[in-house]
Specification:
Length: about 110
């Protein structure tokens, strides 16, 4: 059922696809091929890799030095923290409203 929900590609318009090629930025003679699952320093990252054996130029595309899994875990932690802060604020405002109601009720019971 969920597979039908993710049928569209969420990538940006200008983002390269697997197999896209361009001239190498280092040697300029060979072509670089894009691979979005390139293993680099223990992480799987999107990268451009030069085809020339003497060049072997690699350009990692991801902005940060973290993997996609680490990025998603950080986003999940951040969203949990935002949710926890919202719950704390709701609890504080509920307690404040309850104190106000009890003060108003106490003032109404007290004869003048």
């Amino acid at each position: 059922m969920r597979a039908g929900l993710r049928s569209h590609d969420r990538r940006g318009v200008g983002r390269p696809q697997n197999g896209d090629t361009r001239l190498c930025a280092k040697c300029g003679t060979a072509t670089c091929e894009f691979n979005d699952h390139y293993r680099f320093e223990g992480h799987i990252v999107p990268a451009w890799i030069c085809d020339a054996p003497q060049c072997r130029f690699r350009e990692v595309v991801r902005r940060s030095g973290t993997s996609a899994v680490e990025d998603s875990r950080k986003a999940l932690r951040d969203s949990r923290e935002v949710r926890a802060q919202a719950r704390r604020r709701m609890m504080k405002s509920s307690a404040r409203n309850e104190r106000t109601r009890s003060r108003v009720a106490k003032a109404a019971r007290t004869p003048k």
